[in-house]
């Protein structure tokens, strides 16, 4: 049980470079592994999720050296992986599981993927069904892990996706790289396009039509690359939210990834009256920039299905922002939250209610009345083993006077092992520094 920091008197101040992007770290490892030659990743995220991918790739015969945030991968080419000695333990990592499933269905050996309790409850038919249409052999356990994959020659497909999921899309792209011709994937709604961009950088043949939903990908040999990974906007989001809701704050977050398929939180904050300024835009591979954030009194917001993919991982924070806004916010079309690391609609509602937030659960979202003052009902908060819920509640605690604790705080190591150190440092600063 961890004691959380309480209301700060003077806000959060200073400059922070958040750790590398989780989605890009997974993809850099996987594409590096199946390329020809060496790949070097800089500002890699050494958190539990990405280390699950790294360990799985080593078990598939890939030589990978890591020195803190620099990773060097000796690519084995698309046909060079070897059968692992044991089932691959994917831990808590949904991205790694689904992407590797797409890769392993085309390999000439059998693999079993297993995971922790949370991952073992997450839906896998979303990758099984389209991969089987390509001729893949994928056996699930009542729709979940363990997943047994028997590699097969694959056919190209023309496939209309039924879920808005970058993980499922990426699994199909990795399978399509091993198919007998060009494949076409049509997304339900546009989702993060990191796989498409990075594949292009590695020399892949992939295009996205002007509708932003239709992707064409052909088999191609990939060439190892030097990739510098920007800071993770989904990690920066905790501090963007903290600086917004803790009065008197002013923060600068440097080199944050600003891929437009991920920046939903920034557009939402703009609509809510937040004060976030983007400075020093750069583009070395993915777009990035420095963000300056100041505290603000927010207006309520309404979000529907189209808004969701670009803010999918930040919706716990949207709930928290809405809980401080001057009116009623409504989030709908977000049923995907129910199949994340936890049922995030349920865990957001349970945890915010402990602080007295007026929040109503809906099947596909929630309604929050931010005008109601918070009255702490329960001081024992819980991450429920979900990194993003744990960090969101640690930020929420900065708005209250009562001492509160967080159970299962170690879940935060899944994506942001230095989160509490970084938070403490920004809270200790009393004025804008550096
Ligand atoms: C991710 C895609 C999203 C996101 C997850 C990372 C990725 O999941 O929530 O944290 O790296 O492709 P879905 O594809 O399930 O929406």
Describe this structure in words.
The structure is a single chain. The protein is α/β, with parallel strands linked by helices. The chain has two domains: 2-20 and 230-427, Enolpyruvate transferase domain (UDP-n-acetylglucosamine1-carboxyvinyl-transferase, Chain, Alpha-beta prism), CATH 3.65.10; 22-228, UDP-n-acetylglucosamine1-carboxyvinyl-transferase, Chain. It contains twelve helices and 23 strands. The chain has helices spanning 22-33, 48-59, 94-104, 125-133, 166-176, 194-201, 233-245, 264-272, 315-322, 344-354, 387-396, 419-428, and strands at 2-3, 13-16, 36-42, 63-67, 70-76, 88-89, 110-114, 137-141, 144-150, 158-160, 183-186, 205-208, 214-218, 226-228, 250-257, 275-284, 286-294, 302-303, 328-331, 358-362, 365-369, 380-382, 405-407. The protein has a four-stranded mixed sheet. β22 (380-382), α11 and β23 (405-407) form a beta-alpha-beta unit. α1 packs parallel to α2 (48-59). It binds shikimate-3-phosphate. Residues 23, 95, 165-167, 170, 192, 312-313, 336 line the site of shikimate-3-phosphate.
Largest sheet, order of strands side by side?
A: 2-15-17-16
Radius of gyration from the CA trace? 21 Å
Which segments are poorly predicted (pLDDT under 50) over 5 or more consecutive residues?
Answer: none
- Biggest pleated sheet: 4 strands, mixed
Structural class: alpha/beta
Q: Roughly what percent helix?
A: 25-40%
The CATH architecture of the largest domain is Alpha-beta prism
Total of domains: 2
Q: What is the overall number of helices?
A: 12
Task: Choose one word for the global shape.
Answer: globular
- Spell out which ligands are present: shikimate-3-phosphate
Distance between the termini: 34 Å
Q: For this structure, what is the CATH class of the largest domain?
A: Alpha Beta
Record field, number of beta strands? 23
What's the CATH topology name of the largest domain?
A: UDP-n-acetylglucosamine1-carboxyvinyl-transferase, Chain
What percent of residues are in strands? Answer: 25-35%
């Amino acid at each position: 049980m961890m004691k959380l920091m309480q209301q700060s008197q003077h806000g959060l101040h200073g400059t922070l470079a958040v750790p590398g992007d989780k989605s890009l770290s997974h993809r850099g490892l996987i594409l590096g592994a199946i390329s020809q030659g060496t790949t070097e990743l800089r500002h890699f995220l050494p958190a539990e999720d990405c280390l699950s991918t790294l360990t799985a790739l080593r078990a598939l015969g890939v030589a990978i050296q890591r020195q803190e945030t620099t990773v060097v991968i000796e690519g084995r080419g698309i046909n060079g992986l070897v059968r692992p000695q044991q089932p691959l333990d994917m831990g808590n990592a949904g991205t790694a599981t689904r992407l590797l499933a797409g890769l392993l269905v085309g390999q000439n050996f059998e693999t079993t993927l297993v995971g922790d309790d949370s991952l073992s409850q997450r839906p896998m038919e979303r990758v099984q069904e389209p991969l089987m249409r390509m001729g893949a052999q994928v056996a699930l356990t009542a729709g979940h892990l363990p997943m047994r994959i028997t590699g097969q020659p694959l056919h190209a497909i023309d496939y209309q996706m039924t879920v808005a999921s970058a993980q499922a899309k990426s699994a199909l792209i990795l399978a399509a790289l091993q198919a007998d011709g060009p494949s076409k994937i049509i997304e339900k709604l546009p989702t993060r396009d990191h796989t498409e961009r990075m594949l292009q950088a590695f020399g892949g043949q992939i295009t996205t039509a002007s509708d932003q939903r239709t992707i064409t990908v052909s088999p191609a040999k990939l060439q190892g690359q030097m990739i510098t990974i920007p800071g993770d906007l989904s990690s920066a989001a905790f501090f963007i939210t903290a600086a917004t809701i803790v009065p008197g704050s002013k923060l600068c977050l440097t080199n944050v990834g600003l891929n437009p398929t991920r920046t939903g939180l920034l557009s939402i904050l703009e609509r809510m009256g937040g004060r976030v300024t983007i400075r020093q835009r750069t583009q070395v591979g993915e777009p990035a920039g420095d963000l300056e954030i100041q505290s603000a009194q927010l207006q309520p917001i309404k979000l529907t299905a189209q808004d969701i993919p670009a803010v999918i991982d930040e919706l716990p924070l949207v709930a928290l922002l809405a809980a401080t806004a001057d009116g009623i916010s409504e989030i709908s079309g977000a049923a995907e939250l129910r199949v994340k690391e936890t049922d995030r609609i349920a865990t957001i509602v349970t945890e915010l209610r402990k602080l007295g937030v007026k929040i109503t659960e809906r099947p596909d979202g929630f309604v929050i009345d931010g005008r109601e003052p918070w009255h702490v009902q329960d001081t024992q908060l819980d991450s429920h083993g979900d990194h993003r819920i744990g960090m969101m509640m640690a930020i929420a605690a900065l708005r209250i006077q009562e001492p509160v604790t967080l159970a299962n705080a170690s879940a935060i190591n899944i994506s942001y092992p230095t989160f509490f150190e970084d938070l403490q440092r920004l809270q200790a600063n009393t004025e804008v520094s550096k």
